[in-house]
């Protein structure tokens, strides 16, 4: 998954103000939609479980190129939906920043990145299932697409903002960030496959949790019957 692993003061003040304002506006719109539409009881339970799982996995960091890891945002989006998925991204980032995993000033930017992963994964999953895809390829593909979107957004935010104290010209910074994005795309494939297995299992035992209560997820019998 994508995450901007930079310390306080890494972004110019104007960039911090921009991404924070966009993040606050986005979360305010999400909260407004949630208050208007309401939340089903099972969604609250899924959101709590998703937030706990995402936060736990988030802390398992591989120290490569500033740090890479998984955080199950694609899975969270598929299970909890785009609105709760965005709020979970905010909560996970707040607690992670409190533990020193990324700057507090980058909460707005990182929330936008991770929320985009959950939102894209949710709508991609619904679209692929509507095209009559099987559960595993639909969920794996949707999660990979969501995480890929987050990786590109992360790269764009860094390139647009620039990094204080960096001697790299913007063109060289773009190349360096492209390498980081590429690394995250590789992790996205791995996390996408893991998400596919999890959603496939849930669909087989509790299809209602993934919005498939009215769909037969079992294989159709084959062969000649009397």
Task: List its salient traits.
single chain, 226 residues, mainly alpha, 6 helices, globular, disordered C terminus
Short description, anyone?
This protein is an all-alpha fold. It is 69% helix and 0% strand.
Query: Class by helix and strand content?
Result: mainly alpha
What is the makeup of the main sheet? none
Termini gap: 51 Å
Uncertain spans, ≥5 residues at pLDDT below 50? 217-226
Mean pLDDT, as a whole number?
85
Shape: globular
Number of helical segments with 4 or more residues: 6
The count of DSSP E runs of length 2 or more, i.e. the number of strands, is: 0
Helical residue percent band: 55-70%
Write down the Rg: 19 Å
Helix/strand order, N-terminal first: HHHHHH
* Percent of residues in beta strands: under 5%
Structure characterization notes:
By secondary structure, this protein is mainly alpha-helical. The protein has 6 helices and no strands. The radius of gyration is 19 Å and the shape is globular.
Task: Summarize the topology.
Blueprint (H helix, E strand, L loop, with lengths): L12 H25 L3 H18 L14 H26 L8 H24 L4 H27 L8 H36 L21
Helix pairs in contact: 1-3, 1-4, 2-3, 3-4, 3-5, 3-6, 4-5, 5-6
């Amino acid at each position: 998954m994508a995450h901007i692993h930079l310390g306080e003061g890494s972004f110019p003040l104007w960039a911090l103000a921009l991404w924070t304002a966009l993040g606050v506006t986005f979360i305010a719109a999400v909260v407004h939609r949630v208050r208007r539409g309401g939340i089903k009881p099972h969604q609250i339970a899924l959101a709590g479980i998703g937030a706990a799982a995402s936060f736990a996995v988030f802390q398992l960091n591989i120290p490569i190129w500033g740090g890479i890891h998984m955080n199950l945002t694609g899975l969270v989006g598929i299970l909890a939906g785009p609105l709760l998925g965005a709020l979970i991204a905010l909560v996970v980032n707040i607690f992670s920043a409190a533990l020193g995993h990324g700057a507090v000033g980058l909460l707005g930017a990182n929330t936008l990145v991770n929320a985009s992963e959950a939102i894209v994964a949710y709508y991609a999953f619904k679209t692929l299932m509507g095209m009559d895809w099987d559960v595993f390829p639909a969920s794996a593909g949707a999660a990979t697409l969501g995480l890929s979107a987050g990786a590109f957004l992360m790269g764009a935010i860094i390139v647009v903002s620039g990094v204080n104290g960096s001697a790299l010209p913007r063109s060289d910074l773009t190349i360096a960030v492209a390498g980081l994005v590429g690394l995250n795309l590789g992790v996205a494939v791995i996390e996408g496959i893991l998400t596919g297995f999890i959603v496939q299992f849930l669909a087989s035992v509790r299809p209602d949790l993934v919005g498939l209560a009215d769909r037969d997820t079992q294989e159709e019998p084959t062969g000649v019957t009397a």
